[in-house]
Amino acid sequence: MTIHQFEREYKKCLQRRFAKEQWILNLQYPMKSSHEYLEYLENCTCHKEGYVTYQSCDLIEKRLFENLVNLVGTEIEIRTRQRLFILRDKVDCEMNTHFTYITSGSIAEGLDLPGSDLDQMFLLNGVEIVHENNAHYHFFCTTLVMEIDTQLPGFVRLRLIHIGETKSQSIINILDCIKTSEERLYLSTQLFISNITGVNFSTHQVKIHGPCISQSFEAVDFAYCLQIRCWPNVAQHWIYRHRQQWPCSAVIDDIIQSGCLVVAVGPKHVAENDFLWRLSFSIAEKKLLHSFNYTQLLCYGLLKLTLKRIINKNPIVKDLLCSYFIKTSLFWLSEELSIETFRISNLFSCYNLCLEKLMMWVKDCYCPNYFIPEHNMFLGKIDLTNNKPLLELLQRIKDVGIANLNDIFLHADEFISIYPRLSDKWHFKLDFLLFKIAKITPPKHENNCYRTLNLIESLIKSETSKFIIGTCNYFKATVNQCLVQCLSIPRPFMSSQEIYYLFKSQHRCLHDGLKCDAVSGWLLYAFVLL
C-alpha cells in the first residue's frame, strides 16, 4: 500500500468513526457519570479549553449556544457534579443503616441552574415488597405484597403478609401505618406520612406536597420511599420494546437491577386513594439522565429554562407543565431517534422536536409515562378545558424560533454570565456546591465510620479527577470527626494498654479531622483530650 492509499483509507476510517461517534461513546461509556468517562473528558483535546465550539455561521445560534453553556455548564462541569452526588450518596449510605440515601432533582442530575431543586430520598430499610405471584419473604424483614390496580396504571396497593423481627431496621414502625380493608391489612399513605413527620420533623414547620415533605427554613424536599428490589411486571414492556441506540443494553440491565420505588401519594383524580401508592422510577430516571450525551443535557437545560422563564411567566398556563413532563418528552424522543441525531450541530432541531412532542401530548391531553405508557400523567392536570391556551403558547414559541430565546438569559442574577467565561469560575461553583451538600448524617455506631473510611480509601485509589479526590479527602476528614465522637471514653476498669490504644485512635482521628475544618477540628481536639 502506498502512502497516498494509506492516507485515503485513514481519512475514510476517520469519517466512519465521526459518523458513528455517539454510538461508539455509548458502547464504551454507557454511564457517563462514571470516573472512566470523566477521565476521558479531562484527557480529550476538545474539552481541555472549556467546551466544544458551535460550528455555525448563524450568529444568533452561536450566541444562544454560548449563553446556554455559560449557564448549564461544560460537559466536564456537569459530569463532575453528577460524580459528586454519587459519592455523597455512597458515603451517607455507609454511615447509616436505617435507610438508603439517594439525592435527586436537577442539581443531582448535573444541572445547577438558578432555582434548581435538590430532593433527598430516603429508602427505608427492613421493609421488603414482593410481587403477588412471588410472595416469598425473609424472616427479619417486614414484607408487603404489591397488588397492581389494572384500572390505575402506575399505582399499587401494599398488603402486609409478614411482620419482621428486626423492627429497629426502619426509622418508623410500619405497623403504625396499617389499616384494615376487606379483612386485609394495607399500608396507608396518610398514616405513613403522618408517622414520618411526627418522628423526623417539627410538625408546625412542615409542608407536605405530593410524596415530599419540606420545612419552611429549608429549600430541600424530603421523600421517604419503599424500594421494590425486582422490576415491576407492569413495566416489563419497557425492557423489550423497540428502540434505536438509546438507552443501550448495559444501562437497561443496570436499571432493572436497581428495581423501582413506591411513594406515598395516590392519583389526584381518585377520591378514595389512601391505599394507593405511586410507582416511582426516580432511580431509573437518574441513571438515564447520567447516560445522556452532552447535546441531550443541553437540550434538557434549554427546555427547563423555557418552561421557567417563558411558559410559567404566563399566568393562564402557569404550573400546567412541569419539569417531569419535559424530561419525559426527551426520554421518548431519545429512544425514537438515532443517537447520532443528538449532536451539538443539531441542538436546536432536537429542541424543536421536543416542543412538537409536547404540543402533540397537550393537544391529545395524554402524556404517556416513559416506563408505563398506559399511565396518563396529564390526568387531573391538563384536559380539554385548559389545554388550548397552553397549546397556543407552545405553538408561538416554536413559530418564533430561537431568535427570542436569548431573552431567557437576560436576568439580573446571571448578567455577568453572558460574557466570556472566567477559566476557573466553575471550580469556585463546585466548591460552593460541595460545602452546601457536605453535611453527613452522624452515625450511631463506630463500625459505620470504619466501613465508610474503607469505602473512601478505595474511592481515592480509583478516582482520577483532582476535585473528586479532594472531595473524598474532605469526606474522610469529616468521617474521622464523627468517629472520634463515637469512640468510647476511658473507663476505670480499662487497663493502661487499652487506654493507650484508645487515646492513640482518638489522636489519629482528630488529626485527620483537622483537614476538613480547622476551627471545629481544634475545638473537638480540646474537648476530647483536655
From TrEMBL:
InterPro entries: Mab-21-like_nuc_Trfase (IPR046903), Mab-21_HhH/H2TH-like (IPR046906), MAB21L/cGLR (IPR024810). Pfam families: Mab-21, Mab-21_C. Residues 312-383 form the Mab-21-like HhH/H2TH-like domain. Residues 218-290 form the Mab-21-like nucleotidyltransferase domain. PANTHER family: CELL FATE DETERMINING PROTEIN MAB21-RELATED, MAB-21-LIKE HHH_H2TH-LIKE DOMAIN-CONTAINING PROTEIN. Belongs to the mab-21 family. This is Uncharacterized protein.
